[in-house]
Specification:
Largest sheet: none
Distance between the termini: 33 Å
Number of strands: 0
Shape: elongated
Order of helices and strands: HH
Length: about 70
């Protein structure tokens, strides 16, 4: 039986949230919701904003990486 070890991709994958560089911000926002109750989300707004900014930077980096890639090459 052949080994199913996955080859390391040429760039970081965020197919799973745990693989994302924004995972710490994601978990911090969830922890805040758990600690403060999900009814008062305003207490966690700072965590949401930090996570949103991280995801924005992650997306921009992915788009920049993909600029050099082509479907036809």
């Amino acid at each position: 039986m052949a080994s199913r070890a996955a080859a390391t991709p040429p760039y970081p994958s965020a197919a799973r949230i745990a693989d994302s560089p924004c995972y710490p911000q994601y978990t911090a926002s969830l922890k805040c919701l758990e600690e403060n109750g999900s009814e008062d989300k305003s207490k966690c707004q700072e965590h949401f904003d930090v996570y949103k900014e991280c995801k924005k930077k992650e997306r921009e980096a992915r788009l920049e990486r993909n600029k050099s890639r082509s479907f036809f090459s």
